[in-house]
Amino acid sequence: MKKSDWAHVDLKKVPKMVTAAPGPKSKSLHDRCTKYFKGLSGQVKLFPVAFESGHGCTLTDVDGNQYIDFSSGIYVTTLGHCHPKVSEAVAKHAGQLMNAHDFTTPIKTKLVEKLAEVLPGDLNGFQFYDCGTAAVEAGQRVLRAGTGRNEMISGFYDFHGKTYGAVSLAEIRSPVYGRVRAPGMHMVPRPNPYRPIWTKPDGTIDTDKYIEFYEEYIQRATVHDVAAFVLEPIQGWGGSVIPPDDFFPKLRKFCDDHKILLMADEVLTSWARTGKWLCCEHWGIVPDVVSIGKGFGNGFPVTAVAVREPFKESFEKISASSSYGGNPMACAAALASTEVIEQENLLERSTHLGELALKRMEKMKQTHKIVGDVRAKGCLMGIELVKDRKTKEPFDKAGELVYKKAFARGLAWIPAGHILRMSPPVIMEDEVLLKGLDMIDEAIGETAKELGY
């Protein structure tokens, strides 16, 4: 496996905390900004540090503190901060042609040809957008145009975006949507190996029961106008929940048997994050529609919808173009990111890091009683904290404390209640990954002691 030497981290120098974080400059800048800027994420509210720069797998705040990055800007900078090839590609096109609406450009042509080359099966129809939510909404329109049907089925604890159509595929928690899901949107349970609803006599999860429930649900709860299932292959917001290996193949067959399409929302899981171009490749299936994003442009706002050959013409029916989608800078970022993944063998690198992390996290599970479950697929990782391993009661207070304690040690990462989420850049060196996990281990131990465990 090739190494990204430009992103080497000297663990004698990083993490480096020159002041208690958040430091005085961070606090001052944060206060000035939030006088006007509202609607912050939970992770910022818990640890309001102000970042100034990033390089590879590290971040530096305005006080000079340097952190190991276990977030990738919330699953975005998969190749590390400011990868030279990506930065150079964006800069070139920023000085040459910034936007030409949806007219053809040389860089767009190169990108779609590359996508058709690397994606599985006959996923060879594309349209570009500037955020994951827009891609998910466009994917829904393709599904309806391609089938002539309206209803959608999604999974409990999935997350698909923040506009009404995308939110209606998930839990609606905000009164701004009127607490009413869009018409024709349904949700069903999906297999969570750690928290199964249906199990076999030996206690293992029974995925056949989930499929049987979908059959019954469609017959009893829909108006028989189902266009598609729309699911995250691995749940991000839900806590890096990895389904059993047999679930998606069974769901693919179920959809085919019922002439229902399958859309994989791979905004979070695609482009080397799990060790494949698409996470669905782990299970040997090809969805009919795929949304691609986050790491696709390694930080530049570019996303895509990819569709199988039979549904390409559906783009013509949905007014698919957008103001920013497919602009030359975006296409340059996506193409450069794709080429870097190939040139640096980062699919293999991601897989290796996931295996290394899982071994280290299993040791944490053996050491700390509040660690209920650990999981990883490539550089998509999670640790679930519980008050009791038998009852599996979520331990939100522990999750918050562990997040803060590890961040204060110099680890920038992602909270999710009782589930600790990690998404380090796939270029990370082994020693840096293990150092970050050591910091989490220390934070868990300190938290468990503080809470009487």
Order of helices and strands: HHEEEHHHEHEHEHEHEEEHHEEHEEEH
How would you classify the quaternary structure? single chain
- State the CATH superfamily name of the domain at 84-343: Type I PLP-dependent aspartate aminotransferase-like (Major domain)
Return the CATH topology of the domain at 84-343. Answer: Aspartate Aminotransferase, domain 2
Q: How many DSSP-defined strands?
A: 15
List the uncertain runs: none
Distance between the termini: 41 Å
Number of helices: 13
CATH architectural type of the domain at 84-343 = 3-Layer(aba) Sandwich
Which overall shape is indicated by the principal axes computed on the Cα atoms?
globular
Helix content: 25-40%
Biggest sheet layout? 7 strands, mixed
By helix and strand content, what is the structural category? alpha/beta
According to CATH, what is the class of the domain at 84-343? Alpha Beta
What Rg do the Cα atoms give? 22 Å
Strand % is 15-25%
Strand order of the largest sheet: 4-10-9-8-7-5-6
Mean pLDDT across the residues is 96
Describe the model:
The protein is globular, with a radius of gyration of 22 Å. The mean pLDDT is 96. With 453 residues, it is α/β, with parallel strands linked by helices. Among the domains are: 260 residues, Type I PLP-dependent aspartate aminotransferase-like (Major domain) (Aspartate Aminotransferase, domain 2, 3-Layer(aba) Sandwich); 33 residues, no CATH class. The two termini are 41 Å apart. The strands form three sheets. It has a seven-stranded mixed β-sheet with strand order 4-10-9-8-7-5-6, sandwiched between helices. The chain contains 13 helices and 15 strands. α4 packs antiparallel against α10 and α12 crosses α13.
